[in-house]
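Revision sheet: C-alpha cells.
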Amino acid sequence: MTQTRAVAGVLALPVVPPVRRTRSVLVYLAYAWLVTVVGMALFASLLPLAPYITAVGTPHQGPQWGSLELSMGTDYLGRSIFSRAVHGAQVSLVVGICASMIGFLFGGLLGMLAGYFGGRLDAVVRLLTDAMLAFPPLILLMALSSILTPSLGTLMMGLTLLVIPTFVRLARANTLAWSAREFVLAARNMGAGHRPILLKEILPNVLPSLGAYLPIVMAALIVAEGSLSFLGLGIPPPTPSWGGMINDGKDAITDSPHMVLMPALVIFLTVFSLNLAGDHLRRRFDRTLHD
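Predicted:
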C-alpha cells in the first residue's frame, strides 16, 4: 500500500515500501538434500558402511531404525539397501551431471553461434535440432543400449545426445533476444568484432538462463537413467544404480515393498530438489524475468 507525506503544505511523492522477497523453506531443504546426496556419493568409501555386494542381514528384511546399514532394509540377497543407494548415487549423479554439462557446453555454444550469425548455419542447426527432438527419446536410448555394450559411457553418450538439442534451442532463443538489444548494437556500431560481442556482451546474459535450466535437465537425466536401469539397459550388475535397485525389487513388491519404495523415494527427493533449485536459480539470476 502506498502512502503520501505532506511537507510544508506540499503534497510529496508517494512512498512505496520495498518489496519483501519470501524465501521458501522447501528451497533450503532441497539444497540441504542435494548437498547431503552429493557429499555421501563423494565420500561413500569413507562412510562406515558395508560393501554394497556384501550381505548384512537376512534377505527381504524390513527397515531397522537401530542400524544405519539396515535403515532401509535389505534386498533379495541380504545386501544393505542404504549402502547400495549411497553407491548408486555415484552412478546417477555422474550420469546426470556429466551428460548435462556436456550438453550445456556444446548445445549452448552451437545455439549461440546459430542465433548470432543466422543464415545457413542457423537453418542447418534448426533442422538438426528439430529432427533430434522429434525422435522418441526412450527409443533412441534403447537402440543405443541394444547396439552398443551397456556401460556408463554408452549411457552418457545417449543421454548427452538427448539434451544437446534442448540447450541449442534455449541458447539460440536467448541469443536472438540479446543480439537485438541496444548495447549490442552500440558495440557493433563502434567497430567491435564478432568474438568480443559474443564473449563480452551476449555470453554473460545468456549464461544465467542456461545455468538456471541446468538442474532441471539433471533431474530429467536421472529419471531417464533410472528408467533404462529399470528396463535392464543401464549399468550392468553388480554395480548398483537407483533404477536397477527398483528393478531388483519389483518382483517382491507385494511382500517387501521397501525394496522398491526406498530407492524410488531417493529418486523422488533428488529430482524434486533439483527442480526446486532450478526454479530458484531462474528467479534469482535470469535477467529476462527482471527485465
